[in-house]
Amino acid sequence: MKIEFLISTVDRNNVDFIYRMFKNLDIENINAVIINQCINIDLPEMIHVPHDNIKIISVKDKGTSNSRNLAMENMSGDICTFTDDDLIYDSKVLDIIEKSFLENDSDIITFKTNFIENDKSIKNYREESFNHTFHSLMKTGDWEIFFRKKSIENKLIKFDSNFGLGCKYPLCEYQIFLTDCFKNGLSLLYIPKVVVRHPLDIVRTGVKFDSHIEKARGAGFARIFGWKGVFAIVYFAIKKYSLYKDRKSLVKEFIDLFSGYVELLKGY
């Protein structure tokens, strides 16, 4: 079973970062497609890679979803995962992934993430396996997703290029990807095993309530839920009120969310 890592990075002239990502594994056993979006540098003429099973594609482009889609166009693994250049993988990740997919018929399996700095869970995870629901998919990180290549290709599923960092709406891209998989009838399973570690700065760069971010979130709710996104907006605005009440009013949060919601529905 070939397991392949689809890595997004920017402005690279080398791939030295992969030795840190996979420091707990033999780099010779790693299969990867690296999408190097050259936003602030010229396209490098050539970048050396450790071996032929690691491919790097440098492009003059930006946007997380564009990077993910290009990686999927070039993937060749049986099982693939999305990842970024600041993650570190567990020494047993390949064994855990292979065993999980051999023992389960699921199209997609998600796993747990710990922090690099203290090895604690990045959020509260359930300690038993379960089949994902729409609600549980909202809490899943893109680097926790492992999927069967054929399942995604058979359903022609891609990332919505309107969403993601560097795109028109700079968030919600992986929730949209996962819920599109769910809507297309793919089976999604969660297994409570740690396979990857993320920097602690995810806490400091988590939920923000700037107007342009909340507009994008409202558009994401519209993309995921359609007209039912109204209920998601009301629920989110009220539930998160204590986190933004010193910065903005509940009414302003509603206005920001609904501006993106209405704009997205008009566009679709």
TrEMBL record:
An MF annotation (GO) of this entry: glycosyltransferase activity
Transmembrane segments: 220-238
Assigned EC number: 2.4.-.-
InterPro entries: Glyco_trans_2-like (IPR001173), Nucleotide-diphossugar_trans (IPR029044)
Location of the Glycosyltransferase 2-like domain: 26-139
Keywords on record: Glycosyltransferase, Membrane, Transferase, Transmembrane, Transmembrane helix
Protein name: Glycosyltransferase family A protein
Organism field: Vibrio zhugei
